[in-house]
Specification:
By secondary structure, the chain is α/β, with parallel strands linked by helices. The chain has helices spanning about 10-20, 35-45, 55-60, 75-85, 100-110, 125-135, 160, 170-185, 275-290, 300-315, and strands at about 1-5, 25-30, 50, 65-70, 90, 115-120, 145-150, 190-200, 205-210, 220-225, 235, 240-245, 255, 260-265.
């Protein structure tokens, strides 16, 4: 599979380093805002071609898949560009700025018969399946609450502090907390309560979100772009609880009984970076002619975007779209 990267920032570097070590993926082309930047990126990470515009990259007839790695506010525009040129797309999270944008580009992909999927890597990782197996085993009994937190000091990052780029904690890191809750408790949410610390630009820097479910479950989520945290997820049941070490890139799962004694531990398989799983999922889908990946179906992407729209409305965060 010949793969291209649209954008040449930090997250593009991680993807480039990943696919360079994948035997069935060719690092074919990169597109940046200037030819010089694209050429430097291509030389450093082993790409065959470099383009000084995103339009030229999208027009490359050899590409099988393009990874969109630009800021949130530009995702819809760049996804649309790739689809209009007949390219399958793996788009970085948060998928778009709003649910309306998500519905629009997903409809376009289906109309054109192309794969479009969200690069929320935690959905594709093998430790997701391992966590499901542990929960289904009943070892902690019926889980009724969870806690998830993900925080990094990111105030020096333009994509976080600039409202025009879709800045804020929710779209960048809070999205992982929401996906963690979704993978554990599903999406049948009866009530959402959210609050945040806002910047002088009116974007969220720290978020507190509580999700309530019709069957009595509750998820308490925290994300903060002003501080570092342990990044843990905790799932509580009647017989014990589960610790997920790093909900952003699982470093292990530990199970405890009601006496707080460790009874099981599951190690994360060796990986390149963790990005390889979403690329492999795209390759499988393309080979089968599928328009979505089962790990993150279109309906789930839209549901997550709708939930974040609802949360931002409660927080008073608005983007110019």
């Amino acid at each position: 599979m010949k793969m291209g990267i649209l954008g040449a920032g930090r997250i593009a570097v991680t993807m480039a380093q990943t696919i360079a070590q994948m035997p069935d993926v060719t690092s074919w082309a990169v597109g940046a805002r200037s030819l010089e930047r694209a050429q430097k990126f291509a030389e450093e990470y082993g790409f065959e071609k470099a383009y000084g515009s995103y339009e030229e990259l999208a027009a490359d007839p050899e590409l099988d898949l393009i990874y969109v790695a630009t800021p949130h506010a530009l995702h819809a525009e760049h996804i649309r560009l790739c689809l209009e040129h007949g390219k399958n797309v793996l788009a970085e999270k948060a998928f778009t700025l709003t649910a309306d944008q998500a519905r629009e580009v997903l409809a376009l992909a289906e109309q054109k018969g192309l794969l479009l999927t969200e690069a929320i890597w935690t959905r594709y990782m093998p430790m997701r399946r391992k966590l499901e197996e542990v929960l289904e085993s009943g070892v902690i009994g019926k889980p009724t609450s969870l806690w998830a937190n993900l925080s990094y000091y990111l105030l020096h990052k333009e994509r976080i502090v600039d409202r025009s780029l879709g800045g804020g904690a929710l779209l960048d890191i809070g999205v992982y907390c929401l996906n963690f809750a979704s993978m554990v408790f599903g999406d049948d949410i009866s009530e959402v309560k959210a609050s945040s610390v806002l910047s002088d630009q009116g974007i969220d820097l720290a978020d507190s979100i509580t999700l309530f479910y019709p069957d009595g479950k509750m998820a308490v989520l925290h994300s903060n772009a002003q501080a570092e945290s342990d990044r843990e997820g905790l799932i509580y049941g009647e017989k014990g609880y589960i610790r997920v070490l790093n909900i952003n890139n699982c470093e292990g799962i530990i199970v405890y009984d009601a006496n707080h004694q460790e009874i099981a531990r599951y190690e994360t398989p060796r990986q390149i970076t963790g990005y390889e799983y979403e690329v492999e999922a795209c390759a499988r889908a393309i080979a089968k002619g599928d328009l979505e990946c089962p790990e993150m179906p279109h309906s789930e992407t839209i549901r997550m975007m709708e939930l974040m729209d609802q949360i931002r409305e409660q927080m008073g965060v608005k983007y110019d779209v």
